[in-house]
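Q: Hi! First time doing this. I have a protein sequence and I read that you can turn it into a structure. Is that right? Here it is:
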Amino acid sequence: MADFDDSADPELGAACNRLAAWVEPMPEGQVIDRASGLTERDLAMILRRLYDTREYGDITVPDIDEPEERYGRPSVPVTKKGPWG
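A: Yes, that's right. Below is the predicted 3D structure, encoded as structure tokens:
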């Protein structure tokens, strides 16, 4: 697995390098935690995704009210679509 030395977050990069070194020698598909079903494949997938995004650095999460402030209220009624709405 590729190393994370060029991560925007050096602490996360170092942790990913340690995790990758631990995961690499495992047989493919090895179960790591039976209770949760976590496998070597899960960790490898997580590491691949983290590797793909390692150079992004801090990502700002928009404020929930930002669209309304920027564009105004929608012209159609807003309806609740789930427990999160």
